[in-house]
Specification:
The structure holds 2 protein chains of 2 kinds. Chain A is an alpha+beta fold. In chain A, 35% of the residues lie in helices and 20% in strands. Chain A has 4 domains: 94 residues, Uridine Diphospho-n-acetylenolpyruvylglucosamine Reductase, domain 2; 118 residues, 2-Layer Sandwich (Uridine Diphospho-n-acetylenolpyruvylglucosamine Reductase, domain 3), CATH 3.30.465; 106 residues, 2-Layer Sandwich (Alpha-Beta Plaits); 144 residues, Alpha-Beta Plaits, CATH 3.30.70.2740. The relative contact order of chain A is 0.13. Chain B is built from 14 helices and 18 strands. In chain B, the strands form 5 sheets. A 5-stranded antiparallel β-sheet of chain B has the order 4-5-9-7-8. In chain B, 56% of the residues are buried. The model of chain B has no long low-confidence stretch (mean pLDDT 95). Classes of the chains: A alpha+beta, B alpha+beta. Chains A and B meet through β9, α9, α10, α12 and α18 of A and β8, α7, β10, α8 and α10 of B.
């Protein structure tokens, strides 16, 4: 599983390591260039920890001009560059290469401007997602996209992966919540896209950069929109006797014109695992548990929960519990947020998948996963951002058993293929990285992929920026790894993942 | 297939006006154009043809007959259509299920000939002009889930899909929106749709002071009451250069025709609307102003008039569309006051400005740019001087855009010169 094809190592570059390191020291403070093994080891992987690879050197520039000089030098000398934010990505997008410079944006950690008049925050890319909300919450504002790793993930990384979260059903993902970026192209050109205005004229370069997984440019500044906190937020826990009933309820809620702030589904295996782990008070007689969160005015939230209760009853719900206060609402979420560590306690290893399906296919995909679970004789627990069809099945296995490992890989790939077959996508929010690279041809044909590569080559003609990611190297479908967590040794084990 | 190809090659040779009705046909016609290096004017129903530079092309590829709904799944909140499908028809279909395109596509029909014409789905996506809900829900580009189309070599390509969360390769759906048909000839677009709110009300505040208006816009943006539209319509300048049509455009029982006004919209169920209006009345101190309340029917007509630019119906003057950071609205108003006919949408961020043909357009453009905004010259007067750029772009972005254009359309055949002189 940790074997994966990477771009061929350029030995001439590796042989010039010392020269390159000395050159890099001209562009930034010497202490920002790391080349000793013990210094660069921490950068050998991101949160897809199954894959490890050492970079040639690590450089941690402190400002845009330094990034530009470094990229200009690398472009001239044909040196590959791997950009990295906080390294919390789950698809291996920041996996280093032996002949590449790892460009860490960790020193870009300042919020530059809090502009309440224009409802935006200008920030450096290394600032964490949650820090933005912390910086504006005293005036009742927040930044909407909330990936589960928001405590540690950087906003620059969020732009690269177009991160979503629990509330993207109502508030969209990163691409819908940013106004502008400053970016450095591979040849060192500094470019500003957007700013404090809505939309931008001409080609939507912001839309192109968002979710481009660090292949088109290095983000050095981000302007994000901030929103006023909703007046009322409430959540309900709803239990269902069957998968079909829960799935139908999700579709019916949306069909009735209700857009919840979040709508999550957990299957029996996950309910049991999380309840044992955090005792969130989940109904143990439910086969499927739904968490629905609504926000808005008090009367609107109350009225819509009345409607949701009726819809749930029509779909044979066997329990319905509405949060009475903020503490109880957070309690409802505590189990869902503990999904990953709870699974870690159930088996030596687990694989987290990330795919998307049309909402209406929810029970169909759950049945398919259940069938595959029997076929491969492996346990699985399912957590879904059901409102937007984003599923995160967690396959339980023992990585020390090679045969079981192989079965797990096949199981995972079959789930993603089923997602695509049902009209969904290979990735909802973790990105392609190296993880799903070879599965891209399940979703796209050669023309589609070639067009994307043409764009890449038009902006990075030497293919130096984050090569080997997103697009299949061999242009064939192989079945490769997903998030592999061994004996709880997850990268950032303290981050909730859901 | 071979015979089909031959047939299309013949059609390409014989006719300058091509009206394909299938993706394969589009692909083959473009392959012919690529082989023969013929530039093509790509268009739908021509409802927005006057925007941008005139395209000089030997062949025209007309998508207006390539129409129809491919798939509409109300419960999945998307509709997949062929590019020539009329927005009007899509809206009628959605209406039956209490759904809508919540980005409110701008209707340029009145501007052209005094009649509504929202054009086609392909045109709407290609131009990316969203209406009054923009600041709350997003622009056209935020509602495109995926597309199929043909690039400048004739290759059929696709991107995105039908689901909202999708990080699978570059988001080309965003890139084609607002590209004015210069990157891809669209053959299919999937639009995200939304539930229509059961009711709406609009509160009119009769006020004209730029400082107060700017503060009201700021209160709208700071409110947690989910206001879904906020505009300011000033008095029309007394100059003969402008045709007064404010009273015609907003002819509503509960709207006083005299003087300037600020208006904002609340949508939802009736109880929620009442609750929010009460809350906003406190936030904005509404008792200090002269106000009126437009009921659901009048409110609906009001926003239709706003989103179809009826204030500028059939104008012969230049019309500019400027977007600025909302905090700059006061400065902009002070500059425009009594000199130009204009109105403000997007709660202070979008200005529609009418500039008479003999007046210096440069002065207006410079003011917009000095206020950190960008500007598009939407409609040109007869004496418009084409030395003036129609779209705002800096050199670095122009360079990047040019490279991207080449990656889709290496021979520069699609709508050459439509957006920029260089390509």
């Amino acid at each position: 599983m940790s074997e994966i094809a990477l771009p061929k190592v350029d030995r001439t570059i590796v042989s010039k390591k010392e020269l390159i390191v000395n050159n890099l020291k001209q562009f930034t403070d010497k202490k920002n260039v790391l080349s000793e093994l013990d210094e660069i080891r921490p950068y050998e992987t991101d949160a897809l920890a199954a894959y490890k690879n050492l970079p040639l050197a690590v450089v941690l520039p402190e400002n845009t001009q330094e990034v530009s000089e470094i990229l200009k030098f690398c472009h001239r000398e044909n040196i590959k560059v791997i950009p990295r934010g906080a390294g919390t990505g789950l698809s291996g997008g920041a996996l280093p290469l032996n002949d590449a410079i790892l460009l860490g944006l960790g020193k870009f950690n300042k919020i530059l401007d809090i502009d309440f008049d224009n409802k935006c925050v200008v920030t450096q890319p290394g600032v964490t997602n949650l820090s933005i909300t912390h910086a504006v919450k005293h005036k009742g504002y927040y930044y909407a996209p909330d990936p589960s790793s928001q405590l540690a993930c950087s906003i620059g990384g969020n732009v690269a992966e177009n991160s979503g979260g629990v509330h993207s059903l109502k508030y969209g993902t990163t691409t819908n919540n940013i106004l502008g970026v400053e970016m450095v192209m591979m040849d060192g050109t500094i470019c500003r896209i957007g700013g404090k205005t809505l939309d931008q004229e001409g080609y939507d370069l912001l839309g192109l950069i968002c979710g481009s997984e660090g292949l088109l440019g290095v983000i050095t500044e981000v302007t994000v929109k901030i929103l006023k906190n909703p007046q009322t937020v409430k959540a309900a826990l709803i239990g269902f006797p069957t998968i079909e009933d829960g799935g139908n309820c999700v579709t019916d809620i949306i069909s009735n014109g209700i857009t919840p702030a979040g709508m999550e589904i957990m299957d029996k295996a996950l309910i049991d695992a999380t309840e044992k782990f955090v005792h969130a008070g989940y109904p143990m007689d439910a086969e499927v548990l739904m968490i629905v969160e609504l926000d808005g005015t008090k009367s609107e939230v109350e009225e819509l929960f009345k409607q949701i209760k009726q819809i749930a009853e029509k779909n044979k719900s066997n329990s319905f519990k509405l949060s009475k206060n903020e503490k109880e609402r957070l309690g409802f979420w505590s189990g869902r947020k503990a999904a990953f560590p709870a699974c870690g306690a159930m088996a030596p290893d687990y694989y987290c998948m990330d795919g998307t399906i049309p909402r209406g296919k929810l029970s169909e995909i759950l049945k398919e996963i259940s069938r595959l679970s029997k076929k491969y004789n492996l346990g699985v627990a399912n957590g879904f951002h059901a409102g937007d069809g984003n599923l995160h099945p967690l396959i339980l296995f023992d990585g020390s058993n090679k045969e079981e490992l192989r079965r797990t890989e096949e199981f995972g790939a079959e789930i993603l293929k089923a997602c695509v077959r049902m009209g969904g996508a290979l990735s909802g929010e973790h990105g392609i990285g190296i993880e799903k690279r070879e599965l891209m041809c399940e979703a796209f044909n050669d023309n589609d992929i070639q067009q994307q590569i043409n764009i890449k080559m038009s902006l990075d003609e030497k293919n130096l920026l984050n090569p080997g990611k997103v697009y299949p190297i061999l242009r064939k479908c192989a079945e490769e790894g997903r998030v592999h967590v061994h004996r709880g040794e997850e990268k950032f084990p303290d981050l909730p993942r859901f | 297939m071979f015979t089909e190809e031959k047939k299309n090659s013949q059609i390409f040779q014989d006719s300058n006006h091509l009206s394909p009705t299938s993706e394969l046909e589009v692909s083959e016609l473009i392959k012919e154009a690529y082989k023969k290096k013929f530039p093509i004017d790509i268009h739908g129903s021509n409802s927005k043809k006057f925007i941008g530079y005139n395209v000089q092309a030997a062949k025209s590829l007309d998508f207006s007959s390539f129409s129809g709904v491919i798939e509409y799944l109300p419960e999945e909140l998307y509709i997949k259509v062929k590019p020539g499908t009329l927005i009007k028809d899509i809206e009628n279909i959605l209406e039956k299920n209490n759904q809508e395109l919540s980005f409110e596509p701008t209707d340029f029909g009145y501007l052209k000939d005094g009649k509504s014409n929202k054009g086609t789905a392909g045109g709407c996506v290609s131009c990316n002009f969203a209406g009054s809900r923009r600041f709350k829900v997003g622009s056209v580009r935020d509602f495109i889930l995926g597309f199929r189309g043909v690039n400048g070599k004739g290759d059929i390509i696709k991107s995105g899909g039908t689901v909202v969360k999708n990080v699978t390769g570059y988001d080309l759906s965003k890139l084609v929106s607002g590209s004015f048909g210069t990157l891809v000839a669209l053959t299919e677009v999937t639009l995200k749709i939304s539930a229509k709110k059961p009711s709406q009300n609009t509160i009119i505040i009769y006020e004209k002071d730029p400082k107060i208006i700017s503060d009201l816009f700021n209160m709208v943006l700071s409110s947690s009451n989910e206001i879904s539209g906020a505009v300011f319509v000033p008095d029309e300048p007394k100059s003969k250069k402008f045709t007064p049509n404010k009273s015609k455009a907003f002819k509503l029982n509960d709207l006083d025709q005299e003087g300037a006004f600020f208006a904002f919209r609340i949508e939802g169920d009736q109880n929620s609307i009442k609750e929010r209006i009460k809350d906003i009345s406190n936030e904005m101190d509404l008792k200090n102003y002269k106000t009126s309340n437009l009921d659901i029917y009048q409110s609906d007509l009001f926003w239709k008039s706003i989103n179809s630019l009826q204030l500028f119906s059939e104008t012969k003057n230049n019309l500019l569309r400027a977007v600025v950071p909302p905090s700059k609205s006061e400065k902009m108003m002070s500059f425009l006051k009594n000199k130009y006919k204009y109105f403000i949408d997007w709660s202070g961020a979008l200005f529609w400005i009418e500039v008479p043909g003999d007046q210096n357009i440069k002065e207006v453009k410079n003011t917009i740019i000095q206020n950190d905004g960008y500007v598009t010259i939407i409609k040109k007067s007869e004496d418009f001087e084409f030395t003036e750029k129609l779209f705002t772009i800096d050199d670095t972005k122009l360079m990047i855009s040019k490279k991207i254009k080449e990656s889709f359309d290496p021979r520069g055949l699609f709508n050459p010169g439509k957006m920029y002189k260089d390509f």
